[in-house]
Amino acid sequence: PSGFQAGALVAITAGAHKGLYGKVVSVGGIESSQRALLRLTNNGEQLQVPLEQLEPVRDVQLERQRHGFTHEQAAKRSASDAELGRGGEVRDGSEDGRDEQKKRQKHEHKEHKEHKKHKKEHKREHKEKSRSQPSMWVREHIRVRIVDKRVRAGALYNKKGVVEDVSGANSFSVRLDETRQLVEGLCVDAVETVLPKTAGAAVMIVGGMHRLRRGRLLERDAKKARAMVQLAGDMAVFECSYDDVAEWVGEAVDDDDDGF
User: CA–CA separation, 196 vs 1, rounded Å?
Assistant: First the structure.
């Protein structure tokens, strides 16, 4: 079924696990009662859920901006369908079916336009922010990788280390993992984020709407350069780019931590 291919992100909109998100592992069963095997994004647990209790997440970026958006839209549709079933005249079944199909198509078209609108607004805000100020995303106690071959004539290219000092307006220092050498005077363009290799490790969000919040890495997709993170505090789960998250090596992350 469309939207339920392996690896797709879906929202659970009914049943015992309503309100959670999961990634599709597989879909099976007869056509009238198909079920999806999901891996929950919050804890990695695998469970089977009927397809009628699931809704594909059409726009992951929008879902990240408005956590629970897909659940809300599914609830509105259910309420609308229930209202339609309670009211109105008794008419020929085929006519009712056509009217309901038209109404659903109109609703889906409206949803699609809303998705596009939010994506355009997000892109415009990002461009305006990039033009108006330099992006000093680096913070102390995160792990980064040196990617500028001009640093030390290329001798430190691809070396990893932990940021120790960000007291300068546009520069910072990194303590290299291998040699413990302190490299000073680096700029943001000279480094990139490094993610933990294992799920459950501590991370800090360095870009986007959750910037400076800490949490734990749930999973990573190297091919797409995307990561699934659960934030400390409200325990919200969202997907982000590798550029927006880095390994955190500072003090332990508590579930009550709300960031800096």
Answer: 34
